[in-house]
Fold this sequence. Notes:
The chain is α+β, with helices and mostly antiparallel strands. The chain has four domains: 12-112, Thrombin, subunit H (Beta Barrel); 119-196; 208-242 and 339-394 and 403-409, no CATH class; 245-334, no CATH class. The protein contains nine helices and 21 strands. It has helices spanning 57-60, 111-117, 129-141, 166-175, 198-207, 227-231, 245-250, 275-278, 324-337, and strands spanning 12-20, 23-26, 31-39, 46-53, 69-75, 82-97, 102-110, 124-128, 147-149, 156-160, 184-188, 193-197, 211-215, 233-237, 255-262, 267-274, 306-311, 342-348, 358-362, 386-397, 402-409. A six-stranded mixed beta barrel has the order 13-14-18-21-20-19. It has a three-stranded mixed beta sheet with strand order 9-12-11. A three-stranded mixed beta sheet has the order 16-15-17. The relative contact order is 0.15.
Amino acid sequence: xxxxxxxAGEVIIEKLSILSGRKRYDIKDFMLETVIFEDIxxxxxxxxxxxxxxxxxxxxxxxxxxxxxxxxxxxxPQYSSSIEKTFFITGISERILSEKTQAYVLNMMSKEALTDxxxxxxxxxxxxxxxxxxxxYKDYLFNNKTLITTEAHSxxxxxxxxxxxxxxxxxxxxxxxxxxxxxxxxxxGNKNFYLASxxxxxxxxxxxxxxxxxxxxxxxxxxxxxxxxxxxxxxSISPVTMSDVLRDQDFGYYSSKLITHDIxxxxxLEFTSDQYQYHKKVFNLHDKGNTQxxxxxxxxxxxxxxxxxxxxxxMFEENKDPNYEVWAMQRNSLIQEAQHLKLNIEVAGRTDIxxxxxxxxxxxxxxxxxxxxxxxxxxxxxYLSGLYLVTAIRHSFLVNxxxxxxxxxxxxxxxxxx
Length: 418
């Protein structure tokens, strides 16, 4: 029988079960809600399941957390791509008891995250940064998800891990990684693990935009029953995070100064960075030159944010120049830029999406509309509308409904600020 998709956000719960010892228990009938989080600024996924238990299921296992696994698989009807994952149950919270039933929350995290929490690395690694991260992942974290590396790095280093966890070591290497732009991240999407710079995600996403979404306030929403149309509608937009000049100045986003001290040669060097100028060298969502999300006239002074880094020229065998001037200030500004202008949008859920894709959003101006006007562009906000990178998704699964709360960011406007 051919599957039918009648409403936007429909979902099929193909698997929701607990593994305890050698036994598997289906808990679909007990579930009130399952929530899964993914974020490009988080190494691994997490989530929770809200359970209504009228069969004292928690006591029969017994369910205590720490040893049990939970398998999930959700799929949008007519889609071949699903969200499938095995999590560790890390704890049970918010347990509420009544005479005949009880409710509680099963907190869960990726198996890789729990493995990382009990693993320590004391070993030397040398080579290009993407090779080092790939080896750490394979030797210490690999479970069943492929690590997708979006670009080969030109950066290389030699490091001895001081008994760090695998993810702490990976993040340390990511901070020093670049091909051309130093905003490399290691994160888990619902399909794979990724080693990717924000620039590479944007470059790939702009070439293949995942989808277009439009925001129409409730008062003027048409009564369309077309499923595809509903999938393209933004249900709500949370308060918009715009620039905060004082915060950005304090974080050295606009401008900064780096002082390096070589303890071998006793040499001091100073380097300054200006993000407004550096922005032109980075491939961004609207790659048309001066499309920064702030004016060139924003007050900035590199001495307002200074950092000092030390190095040791040829003091040890295989000791490489850390090239702080290539990545330290630039990465700080680029990571801050990803928090500069964000939206939180609610849309109908679908299981073929994950973080790191690019969306095209159309958002109207907050003004009275002249229904006689034929130029729709007069109604579109030229700054809030445009391309956005999906940085985080909160998937909410109910019995037959999937809703996504997405955090999206933009690093540029479609047109230059006058």
